[in-house]
Automatic annotation (TrEMBL):
The protein's enzyme class: lyase
PROSITE patterns xref list: FPG_CAT, ZF_FPG_1, ZF_FPG_2
Membrane-spanning parts: none
Pfam family, one: H2TH
Gene3D superfamilies listed in its UniProt record: 1.10.8.50, MutM-like, N-terminal (3.20.190.10)
InterPro entries: DNA_glyclase_Znf_dom_DNA_BS, FPG_cat, FPG_N, H2TH_FPG, Ribosomal_uS13-like_H2TH, Znf_DNA_glyclase/AP_lyase, Znf_FPG/IleRS
GO molecular function, a single term: damaged DNA binding
Lineage summary: Bacteria, Bacillati, Actinomycetota, Actinomycetes, Propionibacteriales
Reactions the enzyme catalyzes: 2'-deoxyribonucleotide-(2'-deoxyribose 5'-phosphate)-2'-deoxyribonucleotide-DNA = a 3'-end 2'-deoxyribonucleotide-(2,3-dehydro-2,3-deoxyribose 5'-phosphate)-DNA + a 5'-end 5'-phospho-2'-deoxyribonucleoside-DNA + H(+)
Alphabetical UniProt keywords: DNA damage, DNA repair, DNA-binding, Glycosidase, Hydrolase, Lyase, Metal-binding, Multifunctional enzyme, Zinc, Zinc-finger
A GO BP entry: response to oxidative stress
Name assigned to this protein: DNA-(apurinic or apyrimidinic site) lyase
Length: 270
DNA sequence: CGGTTATGGTCAT
DNA sequence: TGACCCTAACCGC
């Protein structure tokens, strides 16, 4: 689930459920027990998302909880309190609702300098109003690294993951192995604004949809061979299936340690 | 029921 | 580049 849109949505949902409220903080699993206890009974002040990182602050302390969901972490809010613990729950927050954090890559209580250290190594986040896309461009336009790898590098761009990188490159017709320095400025501007638009949709819907209305295969319905990962996409995990635009079989290849999917017909060097 | 895979990242080599 | 971390869903037997 978790690319940047998931974390921004989560920050908003947690704030709606808990901000300004006194919360019960526990670690049923025990691995965050000491820290959870120190926060127990405090008023939750606010939440903030930067890229794939979530920060939760509480009244009366400068320290913040830093959460990173990793590949399969979840942080689910459900109504009511006193729910039985099912499976491994690292951190549970309760006020009127119950929020359970499972399988995070990181769940830790950090001092302000430690928070600053994390933020300092993040590139601009397309979902943040304070983002400066020129910072990313500065890295990209002088790099020989493939654009498909640069988009995944959180020091270059914060919040983009394996689905958005594949989909934005498809939508912008960019060959994924093109070196950063060979991307024209106007193309980068288009990639950035498309990421902003796509990820904002992702926050609203809680899923990644990237297919333009004119390419929706409405008559036929979705291809039964395409696996369901929650959204409608052009190329992600569609290896071997015909491209929704040109019919060329979608290809797959590992780039930056992850499976990259692209259409060799629609995405060419230029 | 075991093996594989997953929208991520860190650390050691 | 590879080992490793964390959890759950899915697949084939």
């Amino acid at each position: 689930m978790p690319e940047g849109h998931t974390l921004h949505r989560l920050a908003a949902d947690l704030a709606a459920a808990y901000a300004g409220r006194r919360v019960t903080s526990t670690s049923p699993q025990g691995r965050f027990a000491l820290e959870a206890r120190r926060l127990d009974g405090r008023v939750l002040e606010g939440t903030e998302a930067y890229g794939k990182h979530l920060f939760v602050s509480f009244d009366g302390t400068e320290e913040q909880v830093h959460v990173h969901l990793g590949l399969y972490g979840t942080f689910l809010i459900s109504p009511g309190t006193g729910r039985p613990v099912v499976g491994q729950v690292r951190w549970r927050l309760e006020a009127e609702d119950t929020a359970d954090l499972r399988g995070p890559n990181a769940c830790e209580l950090l001092t302000p300098p430690e928070v600053a250290l994390i933020l300092a190594r993040l590139g601009p986040d397309p979902l943040r109003a304070d983002a400066d896309p020129d910072r990313a461009w500065h890295r990209i336009h002088r790099s020989s690294t493939p654009i498909a790898a640069l988009l995944m590098d959180q020091k270059v761009l914060a919040g983009v993951g394996n689905v958005y990188r594949a989909e934005v490159l498809f939508r912008q017709g960019v060959a994924p192995m093109t070196a950063g320095r060979r991307i024209p400025r106007v193309r980068w501007d288009a990639i950035w604004s498309d990421l902003v638009a796509l990820m904002e949709i992702g926050v609203e819907r809680g899923r990644i949809d990237t297919v333009r209305p004119e390419h929706e295969p409405e008559a036929m319905g979705r291809d039964p061979r395409a696996d369901d990962h929650g959204g409608e996409v052009y190329v992600y995990r569609r290896e071997g299936l015909p491209c929704l635009v040109c019919g060329t079989p979608v290809r797959r290849r590992e780039v930056a340690g992850r499976n990259l999917f692209w259409c060799p017909g629609c995405q060419r060097d230029r």
